Give the backbone structure.
Amino acid sequence: MLTFDEAVALLARSFDRLGTETVAIEEAHGRYLAEQITAALDAPRCDVSMMDGYAVAHRAATGNEWLDVTGEARPAMPYAGTLEESQAVRIFTGAPVPRGAELVIMQEYAERSGDRVRFRDGHGPSSHIRRAGSDFGAGDVLLDSGSRLTPQALVTAAAADRSDLSVTRQPRVAIISTGDELAPPGSAAETAAQIPESASCGVRALAEGAGGQVATLVRVRDDLGQLGKAGACALNDADCVVVIGGASVGDYDFARAMFADQAMELVFSKVAIKPGKPVWLGKVGTKPILGIPGNPTSAMVTARLFLAPLLVALQGGNPEDHLAFLPMRVASPLPEGGDRETFWRAISTPDGIDPVGNQDSGAQAPLAKTDWLVRRPRSAAATLPDDVLPALRFNPC
């Protein structure tokens, strides 16, 4: 079996970015850039005041004499003249600094009397002037292709004077949930032999959080004929197909067989992780097909580890950005590792992240509070409380 890192590396190099489209910057949140963003102008465009106060020549600020207030400067309404040493200009935050001014003294230090002003000692040596181009200059690259447009990145893109952006098209995702025992939520109680089909709800939300658009979500019985038709329709409707369940080797596990008529190429089969060993990845043409286990916890863990980075890759982003394991203090001890790399579900507490008590792959109640996955190598030594271990946020958004 492949290791987790080997499987992710295969995933990252097996699929190309989707096509691009242009969207208004107001609609670009969460999208991935398909172009570099360069600045169209300097920022600031001229020297501007960082404070409300008075612009003065440097020598004028060293004494305690009265200065003549000869005008004011506001943003987009600069002072037209040149400042003399005996003069001061009332200035507001963001306003262009007048010619001849070398510093801005905050208004808290000013004593104003009619059209004159003087300053108390203690205003300090800082000029309180933001110099032209000190943030960035025209032509500077501010955002690289493949960057995710977070709220912060949108500010930068707008500062570059861009009204629209070239972004990668969002992947259309088809989700197929399999299992004779599964019923739509809200109807399972009507039949004793059925259980609510819960995994697809979480997988759908996770896919949308990673930038996917769920085109179809169907629940299909363990019938190879029906599954084959569902798989063909999914490939026709979507850029990426996710199959939940049927990933093992039982008599009714048809997740891979359902794509036999589509000449599916297998990228990898099984990964040495717990939970989620049966996870597999294939492709038909350029379209990925991800098979994840049917147990809800296994489905969510493998969707987090493989589906989220896969959707990022399809959008031109770096899959490893969605797999940033952070050093986190763990509140409880963990036993020695087994023969597979393990991802322990954990919750945030004031004492650190704490693994949930029930780590069974079918346990659903602990998922409501689970917000971290603690990564443990195979054959890892037992740990103590307060040990620092690598952990991944369960919610990638």
